[in-house]
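haha ok so turns out i had the wrong file open the whole time. this is the CORRECT one, sorry everyone. sequence first:
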Amino acid sequence: MIKQDTLTPATIKKINNFWKWFQENEQSILNAILLGINTEEIKTNLDKKYSAISTRISLIISGPVNEKGKYKIIFTAYGYRKLFGKVLGLENQAPELEHFIPQAFIKPIQNMNEFKVGNDLPRNYGNHEFKVSELQMELLEYNSDRKILKIKVYLPYYNQLENNDQLASIIDLIVMNIIGEIAFRKHIRYIQLDQIPTRTHGLLSLIELPEFIESLIKINARGKTRQI
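then structure:
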């Protein structure tokens, strides 16, 4: 379990200032999302307010599950452990909001069914698009003592996208959505990218990564119990 680090009074003040501004402007933020009213101004102010806490913390707003649901505000340090205390502080010190629910860290996708059957929506990257369910992987290295993996992720159009400076960050974010930000920090040391081959025999679907990590840990645990 991740524990909240002791926050300095200055950091607590910045977090409180952020939530005070957010609460006062909650309806305007919702209008920017739903109606496109003053979108750039709201985005600029929102970025400025949470960046005052840390420039390495990002904010992701995801839509509600249903029409009556609240929007989710996800605070993430993209696995950077030194900022976990501030990320937790943003969630823990949040006031009750009418239209939004704060969440610390990117959590793993709860329902993988649409990905397992390939019904997930394709995502656009420049002039190309691919589905998360199309991504394949293989294990490059596993440190059984530290439970850390190095993996290779195969994706369509890599040969056309490899010069995209954002590609590595995009794949990191996809992996975080699959296994969660905390598990990403704990278990993933390195991700190599490559073009998906014509024959994928022997490769593992990337969405199976949580089960794959769990199986490696169990195998290692069984091996240790057999030692005399």
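The chain has a mean pLDDT of 91.
again sry for the mixup
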